[in-house]
Amino acid sequence: MAKRTKQASPALPSREDIVAFIAKASGKVGKREIAQAFGIKGGDRIWLKQMLRGLEIEGVVDRRGRNVHKAGQLSAVVLADIKKRDRDGELIAEPTEWDTEEHGPAPTIVIMPSRKPRPGMPVAGVGDRALLRVEPLKPGDIHHYSGRVTKIIAKQRAQLLGIFKAIPEGGGRLIRVDKKSRERELLIRPGDEEGAQDGDLVAAAHVRHGHFALPHAKVKERLGSVKSEKAVSLIAVHTHNIPNVFAADTLAEAERAEHASLSGREDWRHVPLVTIDPPDAKDHDDAVHAVRDEDESNAGGFIVTVAIADVAGYVRPASALDREALERGNSVYFPDRVVPMLPERISNDLCSLRPHQPRPALAVRLVIGPDGRKKSHAFHRVMMRSAAKLSYQQAQAAIDGHPDEVTEPILDSILKPLWAAYACVKKARDIREPLFLDLPERKIELKHDGTVDRVYVPERLEAHKLIEEFMILANVAAAESLEKADTDLIYRVHDEPSLEKMRALSEVLASIGLKLPTQGPIKPELFNRILRSVEGSEHQLFINEVVLRTQSQAEYSAENYGHFGLNLRRYAHFTSPIRRYADLIVHRALIAAMKFGKDGLAPHTTRAELIEVSAKISGAERRAMAAERETNDRLIAHFLADRIGASFDGQISGVTKSGLFIKLDETGADGFVPAGTIGADYYRYDERTHSLRGERTGETYRLGDRVHVKLVEVAPVAGALRFELLSEGRYSRKPQGGKGGRAPKSSRQTRRGPPKVKVKRKSRTR
């Protein structure tokens, strides 16, 4: 490349040069690294930005925050599932998170032996989930990457999960819960039932068998009757390998823990902080307080205090409590149980901010200006004493003029200042304009016997928004303080939507007559304009869900690329260390950076270790979300099992060539209508309009259409529902062949017979 002179610019690299550089780079690559490599300066950086944008639109490269990599290429550290052994006995893995719609089949990773095996490190095997350091292999190799195991996230349990079906002559069969298993049924010999009754959910183990015999198993544990909803969450716990029994040394360590002392802490027991939580909450890890700022230079401003349980004072690095907390990653919440990250001695006692009891906390005082913006903040390690334990409904009722015996004495002194401070910070929130999705969050309420009582949408109160906004302010302050101290940390990040997902959104909007703006950067404001345009229309709920699907998935990362949904440049989870390991890491980092004690993040903690922890807890979060979602599906299926033949209103939430996915209004349950049962016509799938259209009649069912359906089949264990359409579709043209038209209902019901129930869930979370 020619030397740069004042008279002429150097030759700019070709697109092939840039793609080759991105593909070969071993570390992170962004616009700055590419510019440095090719000597691109000044106005030529605009050309580079446009070039990278063009490569992304073409699908040649993918972007992650400010970094780019070759499309479909794995990062240096990847969370992967070990799938099988090849003919040479090598372990073969695939990335746990891989979007086949965007990138095609998942790449395969051949696992290489560790160069320096660590003493006591378990050996990886088929079925395990592990963190791998990967390197691309040469083109033409049978596999795409080689990888070395750095940590095993979850060992495959040597057990099977299924429903026991008794046989009159003794023994029975195990019907596997795992629908993807090749061995759907296994024989249980007489004497191997371990007391299991017909219909019991059981854990079993494979038993050796001959080549030509039916595979068989032995029951190891009865988990309960599948007819009881109390057993439903156990299916998710076992199928997702969620650790749900604490080790003996972990429990012993928790029991030995003693109440924290005032030593090394500021005494804040006089500050009237209060906790505001759901009415059934058992652990309380955040408390709030607000007063008007008396500083004349901040007239109209507030001092908001957020105090968070000091879990780091009890859970020390490398302890038994710490190792198990990292393995769990987070607490998992089911309608009938909680699988906690920490034992109850820690989560519900020593660290829970119980009213009128001294508790250690990390607190941040936030100085809020009259415009609602944070002017400054300061962290403190304190001993506090909660003045009251309130529920959202209780606090809101007091503000609305209906105080009770608990809220009456603190209404003017504590609650009203909190609401006044929230009204102030809300100004800045509205200007910032984070993504606002209006999606009902359905709750399942159980009876005392464990059966479903009702499915309902709780009211979204101003009290919820108040706590949410104060927690966001505290999380931002934590990230800012650690960055200022030049301390590595784990961020909560959320990337902007990919171009592929934006194109898909554009097609969906076009199908209902809306146009997606194509000019300017992608910001939350863009989606909010779309959501406002459908507010109050029949498409409101549907478009909110489509916009949610368009979003990338939030995750934990040692690299900061901002939080798109909240429209924040830096953000870290700090406010829930009882139930999230990421928050515990941030607490330790603050303790070390602020010199609050010797129980902070170890000084030798490396960025590479934080990268591994981030990948691990992101995987645990996705595991928990899947388990919670599947459990809710199964519970609702149980709830609807005795309503076969009933009709429901709903909306088409998905369209494939196989049929339609329907979301019911009443419960939010998802079900399937096979294409073969729709009518006597042949329905073709139109990918552009997301619809099924009859060839002869022109009858069309489109994504987002309102429909009336009848429930015809329920598979409670799978959480699957099958519907029959009762309402007609749209007609885009006159029927062909004279009378034509819609087939009579009888022919629609008998055309192909009832197909198997299908399950498909597609969701994104922020």
User: How many E strands?
Assistant: 34
Structural class label: alpha+beta
Report mean pLDDT, rounded to a whole number.
Answer: 85
Radius of gyration: 28 Å
Helix content: 25-40%
So how many helices? 17
User: How would you classify the quaternary structure?
Assistant: single chain
How much of the residues is beta strand, in percent?
Answer: 25-35%
- Terminal CA distance reads 45 Å
- In the predicted model, the low-confidence regions spanning at least 5 consecutive residues are 1-9, 734-766
Q: How do the strands of the widest beta sheet line up side by side?
A: 3-4-5-7-6
What does the largest sheet look like? 5 strands, mixed, barrel
What overall geometry do the principal axes of the alpha carbons give?
Answer: globular
Region (Disordered): 731-766
Biased composition (Basic residues): 748-766
Catalytic activity: Exonucleolytic cleavage in the 3'- to 5'-direction to yield nucleoside 5'-phosphates
InterPro entries: CSD2 (IPR040476), NA-bd_OB-fold (IPR012340), RNase_II/R (IPR001900), RNase_II/R_CS (IPR022966), RNase_II/RNase_R (IPR004476), RNase_R (IPR011805), RNR_Ribonuclease (IPR050180), S1_domain (IPR003029)
Key features?
CSD2, alpha+beta, disordered N terminus, 766 residues, 5-stranded mixed β-barrel, globular
Description:
The protein has 766 residues and is of the alpha+beta class. Helices cover 27% and strands 26% of the residues. It contains 17 helices and 34 strands.
